[in-house]
Amino acid sequence: MLKKIVFTLGMFLSMLPFTAALAQAQDAVAQPETLNPDALSPGVFVSLLNISVLVFLGWLIWLYFREKS
Amino acid sequence: MKQETTTDKKPQKFTGVFIISLFLTACVGAWGLIDSDSMTGAFGGFTSYMLKNLSWYWLLITTGLLILICYMAFGPYAHIRLGKDDERPEFSTLSWLSMLFASGMGAGLLFWGVAEPISHFQNPPGMAGGTAQAAREAFVITNLHWGFHAWAIYGMCALVIAYFSFRRGMAATISAPITVLFSSKAGKSFCTAADVLGVLAVVFGLAGSLTMGIFQISGGLNTVFDLRPSTALSLMIMAALFVSYMVSASTGLGKGIKILSQLNMLLAITLLAIVIIFGPTVFIMETFVNSIGEYVTRLPEMSFKLFPFEGLSGWMSGWTLTYLIWWLAWGPFVGVFIARISRGRTIREFCLGVVLVPTLFSILWFSAFGGSAIYMEMFGGGGISEAVSADVTSALFQFLDNFPVGHLLGVLACVLIFIFLVTSADSGTFVLSMLTMDGNLNPALSHKLIWGVLIAAITTATVLSGSVPVAMAMAIVGALPFSVFLLLQIVGFLREIRKELREPASENAIVPTTSKEG
User: Which of B226, B337, B399, B492 is in Cβ range 3.0-4.6 Å of B177 for a Cys bridge?
Assistant: First the structure.
């Protein structure tokens, strides 16, 4: 069981660099002079927060179905 | 995997959960009493940030809970009994409904009964206020906030705990359903965190809600007896409340809460009957029937509506999401309490009783109070909108002044709010003691008294802020992190109940819970 938790946590943590990168990319897209950065991107932390929540919901679905697979 | 049952170990008086949550609550209480502005500011900021930036998540999970409870009521698990197969309910249906209703949202209905429909009538989202369309929208929105979603949240919180506690013989704690997902040592720490966050959600939820009730009684005393609202008056109400709920808590579940809940239902129905009889009766009944139709018709659309294109995210955070998270905050508290009083009922009976009956009562309540107030605005002398705008806490009393013996009704409303607050605080101390004593169904009096004192300290700190929005922020702050554990509880529950249908009955033998029930 411990292995499973470590594996799951690892999966969860491994998502963080992706989310950070995605959020930074999103910020970069928001930088052009013609756009107001605040209007397009809510910021790195907010993007990370939202994506983490999405990952968490996905993890819950995996927790429910993992016995069947 | 071996499940931990209540019979496996001796009940502990001072558990890890008790010590950690007591320490954290005492720290927050001390912070609030030393620097009330700093505490309420920090909590308000956190709440507003989470509402603004995760709006989709809150609406999605609460709507998900509503869909899930419908599945539980009509799906393949509906016949499963929350207890042994031959067990029958401990409380009569009337006592059961009155207790769950009084603990769930009694005082809130009095606070918002007039104020909320009038607020939406004045300023509906995305349309002009003061029109017939705005009046219809006001009831749809109000019923969305107080209807199926609220009771589905409570119902699912309660169902999970009741199933594991009475069907599986596990401790009646927040973490019990999560232990089936994580049984390792790391999992145990995770479960302790779940219990501690559940306790904090209850403490803050209660403190915020009690503060709002105290403000309203203060507003009522101002209207009825011309006592000017002040911090001193609020603190005196708090002191009277503290003494009352401590006395009630010391008498036990079968006396204090039960008697007060039934008295409350009687007084609430009397007040409702007076408003229906002496108010615009036909208009109220038409509003009631019309509201049911419009609410049910618009429910699927409203359950997923976040107004992203209208730029109304501020409105959404301030109203709908605040309510939904408020119910989540009260989830562990009302959930554990409803679970405790629902032993012996089938899942279908439980779900329909918990979701349908209180929702219908809420719709009737808002049709009577909000309907009469809107009638006065549209076809009568008006004045209620101004009262709501000026002081939301005294709106109910300004409204009751329009009825014969309005002052007497104002006194009755003050008494009713007070008793609702006593029952909420009493059942809150009961639940906190249960949660921090390994799910002991008859917790020690000393624990109830300790939690009673801590709730009073945090409520006093919130009262010192003197602000309704701060009280609301306080009420929901604990629910934000707790939602993660609630979802884990539900996954644990769904996995276990699925097994019950799949595997032979002998493998799901019910473990008796004798050691803790006295």
Answer: B492
Q: Is residue B364 in a domain?
A: yes
Q: B185, A49: Cβ pair inside 8 Å?
A: no
3-state secondary structure B261-290: HHHHHHHHHHHHHHHHHHCCHHHHHHHHHH
For residue B496, list chain A residues with Cβ-Cβ distance below 8 A. none
Q: A20 lies in a domain?
A: no
Cβ atoms of B32 and B462 closer than 8 Å: yes
Task: Indicate the SS3 state at residue B346.
Answer: strand
Number of residues written out for chain A? 69
Distance of alpha carbon A42 from alpha carbon B275, whole angstroms:
48
**Contact yes or no for A53 and B54 at CB 8 A:** yes
pLDDT tens for B366-415 read: 999 999 999 999 998 888 889 888 888 888 888 999 998 888 999 999 99
Pairs across A and B, CB distance < 8 A: 34
CB B248 within 8 A of CB B419: no
The Cα–Cα gap between B103 and B261 comes to: 8
DSSP helix/strand/coil, B5? strand
pLDDT at B518: 27
- For residue B329, give the H/E element and its range: helix B322-341
* Cβ neighbour number for residue B441 with a 10 Å cutoff: 22
User: Helix, strand or coil for residue A22?
Assistant: helix
Interchain pair B54, A67: CB under 8 A: no
DSSP, res B303: T
pLDDT at B23 over 50: yes
The structure tokens listed for B254 are 């079968």
With a CB cutoff of 8 Å and minimum separation 6, the contacts of B4 are B170, B171, B176, B179
Say which amino acid occupies B2: K
Mean pLDDT of B150-179: 91
- For residue B170, give the 3-state DSSP assignment: strand
Q: How many domains does chain B have?
A: 1
CA distance B438 to chain A (A): 24
ipTM above threshold 0.90: no
- The structure tokens listed for B324 are 């939904």
Q: Which two tokens stand for residue B35?
A: 């620097």
CATH number at residue B348: 1.20.1740
SS3 B512: coil
